[in-house]
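Protein modeling request. Please complete all fields; requests missing the sequence field cannot be processed.
Requester role: graduate student
Desired output: 3D structure, token encoding
Chains: 1
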Amino acid sequence: MQTTHQIYFADSRSMKSIDGQSIDLVVTSPPYPMIEMWDETFARQSREAGSALADGDGNQAFEAMHQVLDRVWDEVIRVLKPGGFACINIGDAARKVDERFTLYPNHARILSYLYGKGLSPLPAILWRKQTNAPNKFMGSGMLPAGAYVTLEHEYVLILRKGDKREFETPDEKAGRRKSAVFWEERNQWFSDVWMDLKGARQEMLDKRVRGRSGAFPFELPYRLINMYSVAGDTVLDPFLGAGTTMMASMAAARNSIGFELESDFVAGIRKAVDHMAAFGNKVISDRLARHEAFVRERSAAGKEIKHVSALYGFPVVTSQEKDIRFYRPLDVEAEGEGRFKVSYK
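Delivered output (345 residues):
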């Protein structure tokens, strides 16, 4: 098996290089409107956003920034296949503009826009992030009527284009069964609150690259890719940043396409690609080790496990897991500027 991965160092607001209805899954985290580290990014793309910030008009800046993102979401809708999913990691912003402190609800603005464009919102995930103790207090501290709740979570919005995806041919059905997740993973991953991503960093990436891009941890896109696509599908990230979605796609045996405006990220991404085969194998080995530990614990508790994996011979809880298969990356080959091919065993 082989997968291909293409990076376009270009503006994702125009995805003319991607055919309509050709993408199975979108996993992305855009720049967050009204978070100061991305003010300049939005101001470069929207004169109105820059002017509103300079004038102290937070509400107008918020809307202008989202209008920049809206053009990307329009392209996402165009390229998604019917039944395809969009998973968008986004955080709200709490900020003082012109001496007025307020919350800017990024997740609600994006959800409202995509709902209006015809996508179907599904239950979202709350990702509870760890916050350092000095940042716990906002406003007046212990005094009433002037203190503010600290934001310690972000959202993963889940939306689907059209009706439920159908797997009609024997090959499609077999591919779906091979891409199953373990029963215990399903129970953990499909919870609407994720609190267990602390420390699950993208180990392959340079820390400076992660900081500049606001990269999410590897585990986040890796879970989403396994939850909402099958092996051999194509995953799009219109805000590729440090390349985490592409690395997760490689590890999960999916094809991927990414867009990124900052071409100087390429060196950090290439460094990660060089370690991809070893890292991807470790990801799979860790999943298998966790499953084996789960089986031992369940057996020790006297709970029967009735089914067996056809390929690996270990116990599984349900018949849906019997055909599960892990594709181990063997080699990553560069095929030109921003293009890679991964071979699996």
